[in-house]
Design a protein that fits this description.
heterodimer; A: mainly alpha; MetI-like fold; about 0% strand; B: alpha/beta; six-stranded mixed sheet; four-stranded antiparallel sheet; about 40% helix; binds adenosine-5'-diphosphate; binds magnesium ion
Chain lengths: ~250, ~240
Amino acid sequence: MDPTALYESFKALQNPNFFQDAYMQFYKAWFAEDRWLTYFKGLSTTLYVTVIALAIGVVLGVLVATVRTAHDQQRPGRHNPFLGIVNAVCRVYVTIIRGTPMMVQLMIMGFAVFATSREKTLVGALTLGINSGAYVAEIIRGGLMSLDPGQMEAGRSLGLGYLDTMRFVVIPQAFKAILPSLGNEFIVLLKDTSLISVVSGKEIVYFARAIVTKTYEPMAPYLITAAMYLVLVLIFSWLQGKLERRLRQSDRR
Amino acid sequence: MIDVKHLSKAFGDNLVLDNIDQHIYPGEKVVIIGPSGSGKSTFLRCLNLLETPTAGTITFDGAVVTDPKADIDKIRQQMGMVFQHFNLFPNMTVRKNITLAPVRTKLMGQAEADDTATALLKRVGLEEKADAYPAQLSGGQKQRIAIVRALAMKPKLMLFDEPTSALDPEMVGEVLEVMKELAQDGMTMVVVTHEMGFAREVGSRVLFMDEGHVMEEGKPEDIFSRPQNPRLQEFLSKVLH
Ligand SMILES: Nc1ncnc2c1ncn2[C@@H]1O[C@H](COP(=O)(O)OP(=O)(O)O)[C@@H](O)[C@H]1O
Ligand SMILES: [Mg+2]
């Protein structure tokens, strides 16, 4: 049956039951005025913001983790002063980002630092990326630190340099170890894109809210929003599981 | 070959090595014995600068190891080290474990390194394990491969830190056998071990360490048959009975 005809028939009822009422709300939030299109517009923004933020986050995270690990692994009595300064900057960055709410960071960036910018979606993506970088850095650093120090010692005792030992011995093992945490961070990032609507970033929540201001019925638009995020996360978790299983196969125990 | 002068090492307030002087000659097989915590590992690890000495100088083949400007990677290429816990790279095959360092340090090309690996693996009876991963090997096999990995760099000196202590008893023999052959081939070796039979048979000199000092040193027959130091007598009576 045609959704619009069904809607009209329920609307004519004097006392619609619970399900008929729910259907009418859903109709207004989805089919009416082709509103479903705007959710998908929001969804594409969500994916776009996630990809940009992820790229920024991974680059920042790798840089910061590299600096901090290299600094901590210097031989005693051989401290490089330049590395010391960069390391201090990295520590301040991680402390500030992890010590303040995402929402507040977005407001500072969106309403103060980039108050006049009209590319609010981009500002949101940048903020998310900077935020994510601090968490990614700590995940990577944790992975590098958790590896048996004997691995680094074995590489160095063979005469391999620090960078070669990192590249061939430490990083491949650390990467496998941190993959689950990185996946979780990616899921958090994906869901946090919803926050950029506070600075008028145009992703799913932004459009859902626009529909609510027209229909005055918040239930259906926000449930639809939640469902879309859930589907995205489920798809991603499935991919992540596949990748982890593949990496484990290469253990060949 | 190695000259150690006034070597001290402290971890915080804990003085682990106290002003040690030693000289190790080419071809010597120095065996270090002593109670746990006496500084044996720390001494060995100072020799290739896995630990940075607090004071003193170490010279290896004319190069001052303890000089901050020394090219430590170059020096380490000539000193192999075998660890108690093998420390094989679990993310690589046995062959890759062996060839990584010679190839990356430009000591050999990949083909030559592969040939060297095959030849060395044959020597320790593990040539069929070249494509296995460390996780598929027994402890004894892992340690023999760790020895081969160090030998592939063609070192002038080999350091062993309790190479058999983490092994099940039935696997100790196969590793000691490889080490004995290496000794017969004339390799200079410094071995920390609790295997007194090995010390007696292979050692050209035995050092007894206690509380950061070399308390007594000498030929194995003197150390084991006529120990002078009461701490050594006590130690031997514990480990030999
Ligand atoms: N990295 C370290 N940090 C602090 N203390 C250490 C460290 N390594 C060794 N020590 C201390 O140094 C002393 C000697 O250790 P070690 O050389 O391993 O003895 P051994 O090998 O003879 O058993 C011990 O008291 C140990 O606790
Ligand atoms: Mg020890």
